């Protein structure tokens, strides 16, 4: 069943056509990868889906409901959460407080928010670090905190923006296992932007490749890596170094 449906989405920044007539569908329970070289428009697409910026034209529907003109906090309330390329913990608050703040939305059933937040922190491997000031966490742990804070909103759709950026290979492997587990246990639908191709291709069931704001290919990871347009746009360029 389709959860997210995007039709002819378009966005300009002045003379730059950052997102061009993008259409895509995401089924409930899928992990879909968004692949594209630097500047292809991937984060802009997330910003459009989450209401951070308005589209020039086109439609986004979630479970059949239009998200046109809906502000970001209400989109979170409809079940869409995201993480950012650069970790943005609430500085001056503990790890636990960061997650409790994420729990204050309308989707969270009445419960003891602290107990729930502790459970989420245990889920992402941060048990024992509840009282640590968020900004003192290692970079890898900040990535986990970002995910816990997103989960705290009780999302149905989770948008991950380069979760492996800045991590070493063992941290990437651990985070990958975590994402796969959360997907299975919580029945999440996930969109994943990532340049670390090896882990990316193992995680996703389907890939939407974009270049210069346009969808250039859609298919399974195996189909995508063999697609000449994708090889030309992405794999053949310098970004391949990120895959190592
Ligand atoms: N607010 C903005 N104002 C002007 N131009 C912008 C804005 N946001 C993004 N852009 C431009 O739009 C294009 C797409 O940017 P975007 O960040 O979506 O790319 P990306 O695919 O996420 O790249 P990366 O992989 O490097 O994160 C780029 O040329 C970028 O400079």
From TrEMBL:
PROSITE patterns found in the cross-reference section: ABC_TRANSPORTER_1, ABC_TRANSPORTER_2
Coiled-coil intervals: none
Keyword ATP-binding on entry: yes
Keywords: ATP-binding, Cell membrane, Membrane, Nucleotide-binding, Transport
UniProt key word Membrane: yes
Stored Gene3D superfamilies: P-loop containing nucleotide triphosphate hydrolases
Any one GO MF annotation of this record: ATP binding
Name of the featured protein: Amino acid/amide ABC transporter ATP-binding protein 1, HAAT family
Segments forming domain ABC transporter: 4-237
